[in-house]
C-alpha cells in the first residue's frame, strides 16, 4: 500500500488543527504580563478577527501554547497573534505566535533557582559537616594510632 505523505501531519499540527475548530477565534495584541517561573500570563487583545476592539480584552496564555524554540515565555509588551476559545474560565489562547506567524520572541528572564536534578544515586540522605578543627583532630588521631601500632 502507498500513502500520500503530503497529507500526513506532525503531532503538533494535528493538535493545533483539532484545537482550532469552528469555536475558535483569531486575535492580536500584546503580552500584558507573563510569569516565567509559573509558565503563564495574559495577553491584551486589541483586535478580534481583524476588527479593532473599543477596549483591550484579557486572554489567558500558557507556555505550552507558545510557538517558539527552547524555553517558552513572552516578554511584556511583545506583539502577538493568536487563536483562542471561550472556556468556563474565560478566554484561553490555543496557539500564540509573533506577528505574521513568526516564532514568539520571549523574555530574557529565566526562572530563578532552577537546579539540575541529580540522579537518585547521587543523593545522600545524610549531610556530614566537619569543621577544620575536627578534621585536624581526626588526622592527628589516625597518625598517632598508626605510630603506636607500628603501621
From TrEMBL:
Annotated region (Disordered), positions in chain: 1-25, 94-120
Family annotation (SMART domains): CSP
Biological-process GO terms, alphabetical: pre-miRNA processing
Protein origin, superkingdom: Eukaryota
GO molecular-function terms, A-Z: mRNA binding
Region forming the signal peptide: none
Gene3D superfamilies noted in UniProt: Nucleic acid-binding proteins (2.40.50.140)
Entry GO terms, CC: cytoplasm; nucleus
Biased composition (Acidic residues): 11-22
Alphabetized PROSITE patterns for the sequence: CSD_2 (PS51857)
Domain CSD: 26-98
PANTHER family in the record: PROTEIN LIN-28 (PTHR46109), PROTEIN LIN-28 HOMOLOG A (PTHR46109:SF2)
Record-given protein name: Lin-28 homolog A (C. elegans)
